[in-house]
Amino acid sequence: MLRVAGLTKSFGGFTAVGGVSFDLAEGEILGLIGPNGSGKSTTFNLIAGALAPSAGSINFLGREIGGKHASEVARLGIGRTYQIPRPFRKLSLLENVALAAYYGQETRPSREKAWAQARDALTLVNLPTEASARVDGLGAAGLKKLELARALATQPKLLLADESLGGLDESEMNQAADMLSMIRDKRGVTIIWVEHIMGVLMRVVDRCVVLDHGEVIAEGRPA
Ligand code: ADP
Ligand code: MG
């Protein structure tokens, strides 16, 4: 589904991602792990079109997407969450997610369909679907779920989930891991999960790619 080859990103003289290569098969959950600053989010930003590569290629379903604009990548079927959630705080949960459904798909849905897809995505992540449910008052776990719902509302084939566990307690971490697993199993969404907290991730992913200083240092099954 995805082939990343020789992917490189330099910021001035500093190479944040240097020659990263990996493949991803449809239906997989791949863990992209490594310490803080190892280039995980930068790799995501390159795939999702938030950054343009300095070198290398990103092939998604047979098409080169390196350097394409983020909105175009989203419409091709790649959804992503952000490590730091920044929802529209004055809008309801439902409005936040409906915006993603309305603007993030290849073919623009009717407004009615966008609302329905938003309700569906909120239900999938166990958040309330009432129009009155607000962003204020969501804790760290709720905000992470909202990020997921916004990404899922674009009906992605591939989901890039960045640091879904940060700020969560043990039981919330387990719930978040189970949720990603359920999204793959029930919706057939392929997932790359970036995380530096490794415990629960190891239970859920099929395979890991380990980054350090912007390079792949290991790859294989969690064991
Ligand atoms: P991770 O997500 O693995 O913690 P990042 O991909 O966010 O790591 O960052 C990798 C390295 O690149 C870090 O040293 C970070 O400071 C640096 N970096 C990330 N984005 C930029 C940027 N826009 N400009 C300069 N340096 C950056
Ligand atoms: Mg990061």
Measured by DSSP, the beta-strand proportion falls in 25-35%
CA radius of gyration: 17 Å
- Please provide the count of β strands: 10
In this entry the ligands are: adenosine-5'-diphosphate, magnesium ion
Mean pLDDT: 95
Terminal Cα span: 24 Å
pLDDT under 50 segments (min length 5)?
none
Please describe the biggest sheet, giving its number of strands, its sense, and whether it closes into a barrel.
6 strands, mixed
Helix content: 25-40%
What is the H-and-E element order? EEEHEEHEHHHEHEHEE
**SS content category:** alpha/beta
Please give the count of helices: 7
Lateral strand order in the biggest sheet: 6-7-8-3-9-10
| Global geometry | globular
Word description of this protein:
With 223 residues, this protein is α/β, with parallel strands linked by helices. The protein has helices spanning 40-48, 70-76, 93-103, 111-124, 140-152, 170-187, 199-204, and strands at residues 2-11, 14-24, 29-33, 55-60, 63-64, 78-80, 158-162, 190-195, 207-212, 215-220. Helix 3 packs parallel to helix 5 and helix 4 crosses helix 5 (140-152).
List the helices and strands and how they pair.
Blueprint: E1 2-11, E2 14-24, E3 29-33, H1 40-48, E4 55-60, E5 63-64, H2 70-76, E6 78-80, H3 93-103, H4 111-124, H5 140-152, E7 158-162, H6 170-187, E8 190-195, H7 199-204, E9 207-212, E10 215-220
Parallel strand pairs: 3-8, 3-9, 6-7, 7-8
Antiparallel strand pairs: 1-2, 1-4, 4-5, 9-10
Helix pairs in contact: 3-4, 3-5, 4-5
The structure holds adenosine-5'-diphosphate and magnesium ion.
Question: What brief labels describe this structure?
Answer:
single chain; 223 residues; 6-stranded mixed sheet; 35% helix; 27% strand; binds adenosine-5'-diphosphate; binds magnesium ion
